[in-house]
Amino acid sequence: MNILIVDDEKDIADLIDIYLKNEGFITYKYYDSKNVFADLAKLNIDLAILDIMMPDVDGLALCSKIREKYTFPIIFVTAKVESIDKINGLMLGADDYITKPFIPLELVARVKAQLRRFRTYNNDNRKTDLIDFRGIAINNRTHEFFFHNKKINLTPIEFKILWYLCNNRGIVVTTDELFKNVWDEKYYKLDNNTIMVHIRHLREKMNDTGKNPKYRDFPKIKVSI
């Protein structure tokens, strides 16, 4: 998933960036907010982490601007601790608030919690039989897969793998998790080879490779050891 980081304190922005990348997230980092809103249309952001105290356009103003068009979760990270600032941020549309200094793993946990909450809410309020992004179109009702408007034939297992990965795009999926959700059986280490063969076949049908993938936010497979 794609995370936006906006903080004029370079060390903090870089620290957040490192921890999120270690968790498999794709990050877009800015040290000021001047060009952020203009870039949002092409970034496909899933969650934003904003500092409040920034020169030019501060985090509160940026949050307000974002909320005019986007609904993804927003977390404020700031040194300001006054209750009125927290209230203002939440009223402008922020979803969470953490003060500096903070424990990076706590921020990561909050990011994951907000993404889970947002995904659950959206899944409850929209049809989930269709997925359409970046040239990939999947219909779970008809079990059809279109790649850049060309129909691609998949085996039932390949389709289940593709559907699961697309539903969790941008998140690192372990082979253990994938096996349990696709095969509905207990996972053993020997099953790694079975899974990776199916993944290779999927990539071949999409003219993709594991060494130089075109779809870096999908799929991300972490082999269980």
The fraction of residues assigned to DSSP E strands is: 15-25%
> How many strands, what sense, and barrel or not for the largest sheet?
5 strands, parallel
N- and C-termini, Cα separation: 24 Å
Name of the CATH architecture of the largest domain: 3-Layer(aba) Sandwich
The shape is elongated
Unreliable sequence segments: 221-225
The run of helices and strands is: EHEHEHEHEHEEEEHEHHE
Average residue pLDDT: 81
User: How many separate domains make up the residues?
Assistant: 2
Strand order of the largest sheet: 2-1-3-4-5
How many runs of DSSP E, i.e. beta strands?
11
Instruction: Indicate the CATH class of the largest domain.
Output: Alpha Beta
Q: Structural class of the helices, strands and pairings?
A: alpha/beta
Radius of gyration: 19 Å
CATH topology of the largest domain: Rossmann fold
What is the helix content?
40-55%
CATH superfamily of the largest domain: Response regulator
Number of helices: 8
Write the layout of secondary structure elements.
Blueprint: E1 2-6, H1 10-22, E2 26-30, H2 36-43, E3 47-50, H3 59-67, E4 74-78, H4 83-91, E5 96-99, H5 104-124, E6 130-133, E7 136-139, E8 144-147, E9 150-151, H6 156-167, E10 172-174, H7 175-182, H8 191-205, E11 220-222
Parallel strand pairs: 1-2, 1-3, 3-4, 4-5, 10-11
Antiparallel strand pairs: 6-7, 7-8, 8-9
